[in-house]
Design a protein that fits this description.
CATH superfamily of one domain: Succinyl-CoA synthetase domains
Distance between the termini: 115 Å
Protein name: Exodeoxyribonuclease 7 large subunit
CATH architecture of one domain: 3-Layer(aba) Sandwich
InterPro entries: Exonuc_VII_L, Exonuc_VII_lsu_C, OB-fold_nuc-bd_dom
Subunit structure: Heterooligomer composed of large and small subunits.
CATH topology of one domain: Rossmann fold
Organism: Ruegeria halocynthiae
Mean pLDDT: 84
Family: Belongs to the XseA family.
Amino acid sequence: MSDLLDDPIPGQNTPEYTVSDISGEVKRTLEGSFGRIRVRGEVGRVFKARSGHLYYDIKDDRNVLACTTWKGQVSGLSVVPEEGLEVVVTGRLTAFGAQSKYNLNVDEVAVAGQGALMALLEKRKKQLESEGLFAQERKKPLPYLPQIIGVVTSPSGAVIRDILHRLRDRFPRKVLIWPVAVQGANCAPEVSRAIEGFNQFTSGGALPRPDLIIVARGGGSIEDLWGFNEESVARAAAGSQIPLISAVGHETDTTLIDYVSDRRAPTPTAAAELAVPVRMELLAWTAEQGARLSRAATDAVERRSQRLRDLTRALPRPDTLLENPRQRLDQISERLPNALIRGVQNRRVKLLDSAARLRPSTLRSLVETRRDRWRNLSSRLSLRPIQRELETRRESLNRLTERLNVAQTTRLDRLHQQIEATDRLRETLSYKATLGRGYTVVRAEGEVITTKSQASGHTALEIEFADGRLLTGAQGKAPSKKTKQAPPDQGSLF
């Protein structure tokens, strides 16, 4: 029994570790064994913290690997992880001892295969289409002849040379070139900034505002053109206030910017052809329209001249038009002297008839008639109605005066009664009624004394009774002139 107790406990010689030691050893083992690795899988849950760090999962059909991209590494990602996207991530495996977890710090994300890229493109396309960015009604018409054209492309490629050459052949215009990377990680942010930058130009500034923007790039694989499939580029093109032509890739290549732009050109050269008309064709068309206008004006004048000549032949001659009026004038001129003589004779006869009727007796009769009418009118003009009206108004005024006097007397009597009642109430509430019951008011030098200590400080006191006042203390001293009647709520009552 004692031998068994002396035997050491199994495992007692195993070294002990702290939790931090174990966590540190695991971290060193993971980072030393794996180093920088590439992992392929499907993106699961994606979460972007307020700090800017990006947390997401990479999974297959059985396991999940937690991944982290720090805030300073997010801007360097060529593809931002989206849920459901198959990607290949590159980074360093590390452990987080505070939670006994390990994760992959990712600094590079690539889409795993063209099929995944097409799936991502289709997803973004459906999202933008649901927001109405592909709608035809929001697309702006292109200016017929822009003064300034802004081109967003690489300054060193063949695209810009083709565009400039085509513009020079068709209709030379001023061109502003905004150099950008047309593939790679910097493509999307630089193209977005270029479109937004052109829209921020002001008319009349140091750099004039373009009337039209062309975003151009040559052909390439879907990976090469992927920068123009980024959501930031599509939204910048959709938000452009300046009409925009997209000319990315060849005719068979299609990117998101083609759907949101105001016009899509199959090639950069075709974009230049859409931007401006052919100058020579425009001049020829202008000359043709000018010739047509001249011919139309000449034909119109000729037709109107012929019509005027036709109407002139249908009109009678001036001599024919004046024959009848001249004949009537001659006839009237011949009858006019006789008509004047007969008119004067007729009026002389009427005047003699009227003068024969104007006799003195007739005038006297007319005067008498008028005088009788004036007498009748004057007899009806009398002062009696006016005097009666004045008497009536005077009586009404006297009645109103009497009523006013009675009302004033009644009101004064009522006010006197109210004053007497108030005075009786004042006498009832006065302190003198209390003096009649045997109380007194004590004063010293005109001030009311209410305590013994106040009274001991004075040599002369004045005591008010119901029937008068009495001065005590100094002999022969009259009451002070400052003495005043105390209000009903003051005084010392004994």
